[in-house]
Amino acid sequence: MPRLFASFLILFAVVSGPTGLAQSDPAPTAPPSRPGTVWEANLNGFEYEDYAPEVEALLTQFERALGQRLIPGEKGKVGLKVYTNSGPGLATPVPLVQAVIAALIDRGYTRENIFLVGLNPLRLRFTGYLPSLITGVTPFEGHPIYILESGQFYDPEWFYDSPLPSRFDPVFLNRQARDDPNARLEATRRSFLATPLFLEADFWINLPIYTDHPTLGVNGALANATLWNASNTARFFNNPANAPAAVAEMSAIPELRQTWLFTIASLQHYQFVGGPAFNSLYTVSDRKMWLSADPVALDTLMLERINFHRKQAGFPIVSEEIRTLEFAEVLKVGSSVDLPARLVHVDG
Fold first, then answer.
1. Whose CA, among 206, 250, 313, 348, lies 20 to 30 Å from 157?
2. Mean pLDDT, rounded, for 58-78
């Protein structure tokens, strides 16, 4: 294990209460074998009609590999984790999410039992996920949308513990600890997890958008499932070594992985320089879409594309000192080994 990683490796504390996940739940779980397949579909365009057949084809291939159809389980709900942090122009495409929803409804899930999870209410509204303040119209009528910054979807018994304190109070703070300095200090070390994804759903699907990132290297599948999926995580960006270790450790939390079934990533827009803030000068569009249960493989494939475009534009490649993917691989979250042989083309 690299020395740098060892110095930051924390035994993540996910404390489960009486509502912990049961091993006997009939809901599908991601294939335990790693490395996993990356299925790739070509898109004719970026409208719903373009996404729908390819999403169906990708899900069908995944079901065949899983040996199980994605029908409602004991909880009867599915969560969709979208990315809107970079604002309009660089958010999870609405037509993609609509196509995923349609495929899940075809498999027996009801509209009200397919919920969306996002971080910031303003960005969710600007990117089309929350109703327009002018028209009141939303493409996700009937779907619950959980806004993590509201603080309503964290539980004091489910958290990632880190010795790095916060510079501000976390979104969720145990009210009983407010008058106890020691308890308050302990609370600032914790990042609370979005519990609906692993306590209320049969499974959840990660729907990231890709950008480069100054401290993570790649802002994509791993980041959307971890730092953009919990409270009190801005503290990790103060030191270039903190955020990669936190992403790797959070992505290895067993309860989170148990219900994180796979990631679907559209390459409709991704950014290779200046991320995660959106800059249209450095965005690229490829008519491709990936699905995999291995987030390390997906982020590795995108890192190759980001570096290719950086070279073409005269920018240095992403620093090799950023070791997010290496740390996640050490913790067996996924693998970057033999990716060309694991890439399977699907025709919808």
1. 206
2. 95
Q: For residue 225, what are the domain limits?
A: 38-148+193-346
For residue 223, give the amino acid letter: A
Interacting residues of 242 by C-beta distance below 8 A, sequence separation 6+: 8, 164, 215, 235, 236
Q: Say how far apart CA 289 and CA 79 lie, in whole Å.
A: 20
Question: Is the pLDDT confidence value at 139 over 60?
Answer: yes
Classify 213 as helix, strand or coil. strand
Domain count, the chain: 1
Q: Buried (b) or exposed (e) across 278-311, using 16+ Cβ within 10 A?
A: beeebbbeeebbbbbbbbbbbbbbbbebbbebbe
Q: Tens digits of per-residue pLDDT, 187-244? A: 566 766 777 787 889 999 999 999 999 999 999 999 999 988 876 667 777 766 788 9
Q: Which residue has the tokens 């609906």?
A: 196
Q: What is the distance between the alpha carbons of residues 78 and 250, in angstroms, rounded to a whole number?
A: 21
Stated pTM of the model: 0.84
